[in-house]
Amino acid sequence: MNRNIDDGCRGAFARATRAMLLLILGSVALLVPQASGDGRLGSYVALKAGIYSPSESFNIGNLDIQTTFEGDTETGFDGEIAIGHYFLPTFALELGIGYFKGKGSLEAGSTTAARHDVDFDVIPFILSAKALIPTGPVDPYGEVGIGAYFTQFDVSDNLNTFDGTTTFGLHAGAGLNVNITQSAFIGVEGRYVWANPSFGDQKIKLNDTEYALDGFKLNGFTTTLVLGFSF
Q1: Which end of the chain has the smaller Cβ count within 10 Å, N or C?
Q2: pLDDT for 153-198, tens place per residue?
Q3: Handedness of CA 91, 96, 102, 106 (dihedral sign)
């Protein structure tokens, strides 16, 4: 008799549990039609590596003698480690720390003696808001965010490394994640960065003349491959 009662209780509980799960799943399906419960967990860590492509030339000038060194920039490395959290199936916040590097040259006039090689290294701390479109195993997304950028600037034939003040910039981009398991994904991400570092009163000596480190911008594209793990 007791066994029959226990079996009946367990059966009723199982039916009630199934009904509740169906109700929850139905509600989620109505609220977020594309988020079909693909197993995405609450948080994730992502490793990113790729290239940084500056989009602007720059110059450094001497106001006293009205001479300017024109600079060209070239593609360099970009990498980032990020941690994020899904607040909704369609919305996540991501905090990252990265490193990107560029190079270029400075030239005054057409003489090769006036040409100097340039290296600049940047460490960004980045906060991004991501809007996702869950479509089963594939999640396209767009993002916007802000960052704090720490910049070093090196010029050949100079003994000093020039450190920029903390620069706050903006970025926007898009990407695509492919969920290869319930807890791992791969992807590709592209961003455009707007940031203008300041070097204060620091002077750089080129061809026996001092110049102000001005007119330098970090504006450019980053393109990275992504490996992520949910937890």
Answers
A1: N
A2: 777 766 566 777 778 999 999 999 999 988 899 999 999 999 888 7
A3: positive
